Amino acid sequence: MSGLSAWLVQRLSSLYLAAFTLYAVVRLSMAEAWSHAAWSGWLAAPSNAVMLWLAALAVLLHAWVGGRDVLLDYVHPLGLRIAMLAGLAGWLLGSGIWFTATLLEAL
Amino acid sequence: MPHRDKKTTAKRPVFLDLRRIRLPPQAISSITHRVTGLGMLLAIPPAAWLFALSLSGPEGFARAGDLLTGLPARIVGLLLCLALALHLLAGIRYLLLDVDIGITRLAARRSALLVMGAGLVVGLGLWWGLWA
Q1: Are residues A28 and B2, on separate chains, in Cβ contact within 8 Å?
Q2: B55 vs A48: CA distance, rounded Å
Q3: For A18-56, what is each residue's pLDDT tens digit?
Q4: Which of B1, B35, B41 to mutate to test the interface with A (most CBs of A within 10 A)?
């Protein structure tokens, strides 16, 4: 992902995340007593799970584009650059797969 | 360094005296945006781990709660709250700059100072609201 598509993904994901962050802060401030039952119950609603999964997807895409930009700016030796880009991809992809698996189990 | 044409760069002067370079607020906000973004990027796998732990059952949920209310999590939480607020507000500024709002030098200078000041306040407030 590069050029215009990366630029667009960065902005679309930022809009979703800005709205989601605002919602999350408001929702957290309204939360009653914390419990495992309330937490897993909230996630069992498909609309909440989808909203959260989309937020995670937006975070990962946003972090990929931003992290890639930073690496391309500061890491110039080709081998190191490729290794760090691969590390970043694994870092994000691993987190995404883990998060998705957890979410599917909770449904 | 990126590839450069030797004919045009051979005698280019280099000035990198960090004590005498004065970065404008726009540049400081830009660097802050990058540093805060990287900081939050590093927190992604621990967040996925805490998420899994909190859903693993009532004991796991209690364990995640204990971890989050501990001192290390409070300190990391403060840093992440500041990072989120600074990054989000600076990001909104960039979206506005994209559509040419506040694009003049003076306006951009003022808005950079504004988002950094507001970011610190909002970040502290967020941390206070979540942990206090």
Answers
A1: no
A2: 15
A3: 999 999 999 988 887 889 999 999 999 999 999 999 999
A4: B41
